[in-house]
Design goal:
This protein has 599 residues and is of the alpha/beta class. Helix content is 46%, strand content 9%. A 4-stranded parallel sheet has the order 5-4-6-7. A 4-stranded parallel sheet has the order 9-8-10-11, with helices on both faces. A 3-stranded antiparallel sheet has the order 1-3-2, sandwiched between helices. Strand 6, helix 17 and strand 7 form a beta-alpha-beta unit. The two termini are 54 Å apart. The relative contact order is 0.07.
Length: 599
């Protein structure tokens, strides 16, 4: 503590000088930047849990000692850890106030382990409340685990007074029954929650919940933590031969179908658990029978994309003949009859892309001019734009021309794909084959890595970079490409508008959120990044097949769009379709914004 920076530094120097007199096993310097220290402190609990024996549960308690007896109390707790053989236990917390947390792991599948746990808690209560006159609860509430010891700490008269107050306010015992006031001296040993082994991907999870804030399905179905809880229960029931059909059916939709599998949860998890990886693994089992169809579509990808454009063309014709309202009813009826197996009606679903691909355009002639390999994603090749906007390839061509770059389009582009559609369904073998095929095509088009490669869709870049190239390819999504390869050759005049910006989950995971924001701010008067939206929930085809996920993820978006805002930007074509629908304004690639500002 210090009332000024100077006073704080002086105290730190004083403590450091005193510590120098001792032999130090390790040393970490004082700092006034608390962000990293706070991250470490928050991560201690999950970190201990991650290395626990699979199948055990992590227990956390908080106690307080009189400050003058804090050192004795810590030593006493450590002695109890040794006595009851909790060698993995740690102590941390707000020590300057005498408030300590301690964490240990415990199995509940063996009566002997439960007995050890009960004896340890008895010893802790005696140490804290009786020997040192401390508190069995410091900052957190008294739960069922400490309920049997409340009278030990407060005495019979204090307990009787609490019972009288409880009876006055809650005569029927409806509020939190068994919490604080509990007549069962073994209440803390009943109804114990196990953490059974389920899958190595998620077994380290202690269900701390750090992941939940970034999950797009958290208000619709399940959060990552809840998916893990249900999956563990399914695993337990299967091992015990207990009925699980009803729960399995529930998990099929709540757990598997409505997961965006973006991996944002892994970034928030102190130990990097990616619940999406588990879901993809489960999808690989669920969709196993469709692998031959997927493999055929991958081998005939050019025809598949042509068929998709044709379907969008028919949709546009039907819309003109029947009207959008009638067409929406027809599509909805077919979807209902199919048991939700066909795509939903999406008002912002555009017509087909009309761009004509000139493959190998501007092939190298031996000069030293700058060139760029441009790979439009399959989404950009299939979907056109709304409201008569120019096509994304036209915008890219315009920008690159302004920057004096020649455009090279890979040969056989219609058949190229990063493999994302297959990877999201857990079909990793097919996905990897497409990724490798694309990497080879880009290697040739870039003249063995001589020219940078621009992909207009961020998730494709993340997918492409997820494997080892081994060839020195330089692959960029739009924002990073603009900053590194275009801005030195462009003059930007920010448009006099407020614009919305959606930073895709793939950009966040690649650490490019700041670059995307920097590009947008260089091109517009004001940029708004909506709060509490980490992922749009469109998730490839989820916006069409599970549209409620997209709606739940973007429920707060429209209210955050200012009245004078006319356009939004992102870097994923499918995300932009969902954003346009739920924001009420059109969203386009951030390259459109750069093109508007660039000369």
């Amino acid at each position: 503590h210090g009332e000024s920076k100077e006073a704080l530094v002086a105290r730190c120097e004083q403590v450091t000088a005193m510590a120098a007199e001792f032999v130090q096993v390790a040393s970490v310097p004082f700092t006034i930047d608390s962000a990293d220290l706070w991250a470490i402190r928050k991560g201690l609990f999950p970190a201990v849990g991650a290395v626990r024996t699979t199948g055990t549960t992590v227990i956390i308690e908080d106690v307080a000692f009189p400050i003058e007896r804090l050192a004795e109390g810590v030593a006493g707790l450590q002695a109890l850890f040794d006595r009851f053989e909790y060698g993995e236990a740690i102590i941390f917390g707000h020590a300057l106030e005498g408030n300590l947390h301690f964490v240990f792991t415990q199995g509940f599948d063996d009566p002997a382990q439960v007995a050890r746990y009960g004896a340890f808690m008895d010893a802790v209560a005696e140490l804290v409340a009786v020997r040192f006159g401390g508190s069995l609860k410091a900052e957190h509430g008294t739960g069922r685990n400490m309920a049997p010891y409340v009278e030990l700490e407060w005495g019979s008269e204090g307990m009787a007074l609490m019972r009288r107050i409880k009876a006055l306010l809650d005569p029927d015992g409806l509020l939190n029954p068994g919490v604080i006031i509990n007549d069962d001296p073994k209440a803390h040993l009943a109804h114990l929650k196990p953490m059974p082994a389920s899958d190595a991907i998620v077994d380290p999870c202690i269900e701390c919940g750090f992941c939940e804030a970034v999950c797009p399905s958290r208000t619709l179905s399940l959060s990552p933590r809840q998916r893990i809880v249900l999956y563990r229960e399914l695993a337990r029931r299967n091992r015990a031969d207990e009925p699980s059909n009803q729960l399995a059916q529930l998990f099929d939709y709540q757990g598997i179908d409505t997961c965006a599998a973006t991996g944002l949860c892994a970034d928030r998890c102190p130990v990097g658990i990616n619940t999406g990886s588990l879901i993809k693994k489960l999808r690989s089992e669920k969709y196993q029978r469709f692998v031959p169809i997927a493999r055929w579509s991958a081998d005939h990808f050019a025809g598949v994309t042509r068929a998709a454009r044709g379907s969008l063309g028919l949709k546009a014709i039907a819309g003109k003949l029947l009207g959008d309202k009638a067409l929406a009813g027809l599509v909805g009826g077919v979807r209902k009859l199919s048991g939700q197996r066909t795509p939903a009606w999406l008002p912002t679903l555009p017509g087909p892309s009309r761009y004509q691909w000139l493959q190998g355009e501007g092939s190298h002639d031996g000069s030293s001019e700058r060139a760029v390999v441009y790979l439009p994603s399959c989404a950009s090749r299939v979907f056109g734009q709304q409201e008569e906007a120019p096509s994304l390839p036209d915008v890219v061509q315009s920008l690159l021309n302004k920057a004096g770059c020649r455009v090279i389009v890979p040969q056989g582009i219609e058949g190229l794909c990063c493999g994302m559609p297959y990877d999201s369904k857990g079909m990793s073998e097919v996905a990897e084959a497409k990724r490798s095929e694309l990497a080879d095509a880009l290697w040739q088009a870039s003249e063995q890595g001589r020219w940078p490669v621009l992909l207009d869709t961020s998730p494709c870049v993340q997918r492409l970079l997820s494997g080892a190239f081994g060839k020195g390819l330089r692959v960029f999504e739009p924002s990073a490409f603009v900053l590194e390869h275009l801005l030195p050759h462009l003059e930007l005049t920010p448009i006099d508008e407020t614009v919305m910006l959606h930073i895709t989950c793939s950009s966040r995971r690649m650490g490019l959120g700041d670059k995307m924001l920097a590009v947008a701010r260089a091109c517009a008067r004001e940029v708004i990044v909506p709060e509490h939206i980490q992922c749009c929930g469109f998730a490839g085809d989820k916006g069409l097949m599970t549209p409620e996920l997209n709606a739940a993820a973007l429920a707060s978006l429209a209210a955050q769009v200012p009245r004078d805002c006319r356009q939004g930007f992102s870097n994923s074509r499918t995300c932009e379709m969902g954003l346009s629908q739920h924001a009420g304004i059109p969203y386009h690639s951030i390259l459109y914004l750069v093109d508007q500002a660039a000369r």
